[in-house]
Specification:
With 399 residues, the chain is of the alpha+beta class. It contains 14 helices and nine strands. A hairpin with a 2-residue loop joins β2 and β3. It is elongated and about 80 Å long.
Length: 399
């Protein structure tokens, strides 16, 4: 449902509601809405304009029928036949998966409120639909299963496509959802991403010390490693996601209350991770959390926000733009870790190290889930609680 024709205030607007034409207007402080039995199309738009003219004339003549009975069209067999034919024609036109692309764009924009071009998940689903040219709609499960997708990617695309097909079914464009009976894949022995294996405390301290002292920074380097020490230390100390730290603004830091608000991100898009490609959006789970600050973090953040306005970024690149974590990984993090003999780990391993450290130190799972911005404790339990070590004693039963 979405308005197609934007009308001036006080005018009668022509909108779309469940693929039909709907008129909306105000008169004497009251709102009125009239649904017409015509498919929302250019061919039927003259029916809407005629009805708009009739209503406006009655308003001018002061004989407007507030019950709207006068303006309801007489539904005869001709109208029903025309409407039926239009729906059948639309259904026939969507015979193959690539025919669904315009509807997918409409669903993403009006129903999901998603900018497809800046969303990796939805963009690749659209690319798949475009690629499946000449493939019948009912064969979508076969095409999805034939793709070489990771379990998590497969399940995510299955869920989104199923929601999309359900929407098409409610509109009458499809008779049934071809994915309604398809089950998710089960993850059989998920392999660990070696780049994200948590670093031990001594490794973290050695790494941060090397960054701070420019231990492995070339003398000819224009920009020193130490410039990014505060940014990296903040991530290792708080366990925030990369985009949350990159998008942190001065107004989110409260030195007096000793806390920092994590409520938005500066996320990378399909166009890259540089400043121009990033977009500001909410956190991954669309939640807000407040992290307590220790003395080290208060000192770091206090120095970073001096002389900046509330909307300025706390952590900036050497050029005063947002930090490109992908280039930071390539030019600084990876070389330093390899020189230290810690292997090839990416910056996201800092988040896993934070979660593992929190659980090992006895922090309650509810606290871990809150600090890391999880929607439930299940994620924290699955990723950071391990039962590989044998228990030394049995729990006591005190009578």
């Amino acid at each position: 449902m979405g308005q197609t024709f934007k009308t001036p205030k006080g005018e009668i607007s022509i909108t779309k509601c469940e693929e039909r034409i709907r008129l909306r207007w105000r008169y004497n402080g009251n709102r009125y809405s009239l649904n017409l039995p015509f498919v929302f199309s250019e061919e039927n738009m003259h029916q809407a304009t005629l009805k708009v003219a009739e209503i406006k004339l009655d308003i001018l003549k002061r004989c407007f029928d507030t019950s709207l009975e006068k303006y309801k069209p007489v539904i005869d067999q001709v109208i029903l036949k025309t409407t039926e034919q239009a729906l059948v024609q639309e259904t026939k036109s969507i015979a193959f998966l690539n025919d669904l692309v315009p509807k997918f764009n409409e669903w993403c924009k009006n129903i999901r409120n998603i900018d497809v071009d800046n969303s990796i998940d939805f963009l690749y689903i659209r690319k798949s639909l475009e690629k499946w040219e000449g493939v019948p709609v009912n064969d979508v499960s076969e095409k999805l299963n034939n793709g070489k997708l990771a379990v998590s990617t497969y399940n995510k695309r299955l869920a989104y496509l199923s929601l999309f097909f359900s929407w098409l079914t409610t509109l009458g464009i499809l008779e049934r959802n071809p994915l309604q009976d398809v089950c998710k894949r089960k993850n059989k022995g998920k392999k660990k991403n070696q780049q994200r294996v948590p670093m031990e405390e001594k490794e973290i301290l050695s790494f941060l010390d090397a960054i701070k002292n420019d231990t492995y920074c070339s003398n000819s380097s224009t920009y020193k490693h130490s410039f990014y020490h505060s940014f990296l230390k903040f991530i290792f100390y708080t366990g925030v996601r990369n985009a949350e730290a990159i998008g942190l603004r001065v107004k989110h830091v409260n030195i007096q209350e000793k806390q920092v608000e994590i409520s938005e991100t500066l996320a990378r898009t399909v166009n890259g991770s540089n400043h121009a490609a990033r977009i500001r959006k909410g956190t991954k789970m669309e939640n807000i959390r407040f992290l307590p600050l220790n003395e080290d973090l208060i000192d770091i953040l206090g120095k970073q926000i001096i002389g900046k306005s509330p909307d300025d970024l706390v952590f900036q690149s050497v050029r005063g733009l947002s930090i490109d974590d992908r280039m930071l990984q390539r030019r600084i993090i990876k070389p330093v870790l390899q020189k230290l003999g810690f292997g090839n780990k990416d910056l996201y391993s800092a988040r896993h190290a934070f979660g593992t450290r929190a659980v090992q130190q006895g922090m309650a799972l509810t606290d871990v889930a809150y600090l890391m911005g999880h929607s439930s404790i299940e994620t924290a339990s699955r990723n950071y609680v391990h039962v590989e070590r044998a228990a030394k004693v049995l729990p006591e039963l005190k009578l």
